[in-house]
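User: Here's a structure from my thesis project, written as structure tokens. My advisor, Dr. K., wants to see whether a designed sequence matches the one we expressed. Can you design one independently, without my sequence as a hint?
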């Protein structure tokens, strides 16, 4: 069998570990051949391939990014996109695809599977917002990077008696903010699921200073103010999946805090630092196991499925079950962190 592999959407640490596991087990156990498709769905759409075998996977386990490249190409937004993908797969002699991606890439995989393409999905996103799986790889790395940043920000905030607002990724879900905020001892965590009251944020800033500590506020890029304000945009332009580019909420909050409390406040945007570089051991472990199970699913002809972590077991779900809705922070989980606010 000849198997195509692609990585789509925002990159995340651990993608190369999946590719390596898929190829190693595919070649050694199942005797498969591989084709690497470049830059997400653009690869099969435009017939852009690269050689992919054990040799190309040597040394990539600890490397961030993806050797295949990535893009946010949506074939359903391109004329004859699906037909072109089917034609190119046939031309390349590809019998099955392993698609590694988040809600958008796997959303495309779900629709293609319904249209008869043999596809198996592997979930990835630093945001950890895919339902069906307990964790996605990339998340643990992002949380560790954000936590280290918060640790460092504590000492400088305290030296200058300043408020530091740390903006982390998380378009729809506040998982990175919540986990790094708890791990880093933040004095407040603001997430998209719970619109925030800026007066409450300022009140907690004041109480934090009363206890002689400098406040660190961790905010997801997608957090929204309760008083009807909107999400903070870098650009209103939509990508191929209808997403705007978020950013700037940290600055906005810091400005409000300075104005309302008279305390000096600065914002730090962690941005793509959270997505780059080497994966943690947990992410390498999870990505490798997803890859091993995904290629077994291909060998068994179990198409239209995706891998999911349940406890410590890797299970297979129908793609639609894993991509149908987002996994959000529940009010109960948020309430746990609130004990430390202020
Ligand atoms: O989907 C993951 C994510 O990290 C989001 O949290 C963020 O909004 C987005 O990617 C930004 O990605 P890019 O800069 O590639 O558009």
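Assistant: Designed independently from the structure alone:
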């Amino acid at each position: 069998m000849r198997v195509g592999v692609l990585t789509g959407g925002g990159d995340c640490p651990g993608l190369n570990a999946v590719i390596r596991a898929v190829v190693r087990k595919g070649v050694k156990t199942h005797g498969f051949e591989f084709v690497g498709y470049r830059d997400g769905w653009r690869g099969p759409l435009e017939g852009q391939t690269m050689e992919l075998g054990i040799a190309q996977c040597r040394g990539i386990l600890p490397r961030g990014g993806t050797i295949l490249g990535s893009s946010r190409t949506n074939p359903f937004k391109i004329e004859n996109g699906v037909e072109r993908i089917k034609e190119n797969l046939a031309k390349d002699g590809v019998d099955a695809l392993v698609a590694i991606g988040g809600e958008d890439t796997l959303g495309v995989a779900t629709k293609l599977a319904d249209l008869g393409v043999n596809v198996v999905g592997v979930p990835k996103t630093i945001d950890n917002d895919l339902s069906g799986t307990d964790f996605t790889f990339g998340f643990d790395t992002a949380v560790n990077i954000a936590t280290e940043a918060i640790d460092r920000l504590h000492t400088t905030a305290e030296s200058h008696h300043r408020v530091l607002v740390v903006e982390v990724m998380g378009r729809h879900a506040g998982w990175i903010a919540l986990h790094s905020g708890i791990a880093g001892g933040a004095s407040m965590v603001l997430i998209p699921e719970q619109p925030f009251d800026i007066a409450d944020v300022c009140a907690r800033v004041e109480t934090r200073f009363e206890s002689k500590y400098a406040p660190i506020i961790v905010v997801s890029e997608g957090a929204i103010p309760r008083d009807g304000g909107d999400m903070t945009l870098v650009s209103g332009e939509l990508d191929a999946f209808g997403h705007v580019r978020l950013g700037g909420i940290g600055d906005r909050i810091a400005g409000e805090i300075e104005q309302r409390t008279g305390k000096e406040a600065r914002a730090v945007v962690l941005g793509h630092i959270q997505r780059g570089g080497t994966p943690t051991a947990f992410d390498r472990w999870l990505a490798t196991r997803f890859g091993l199970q995904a290629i077994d699913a291909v060998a068994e002809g179990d198409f239209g499925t995706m891998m999911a972590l349940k406890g410590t077991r890797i299970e297979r779900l129908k793609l639609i079950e894993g991509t149908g809705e987002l996994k959000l922070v529940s009010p109960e989980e948020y309430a746990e962190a609130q004990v430390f606010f202020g």
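When you compare it with your expressed construct, this may help: The longest helix spans residues 139-160.
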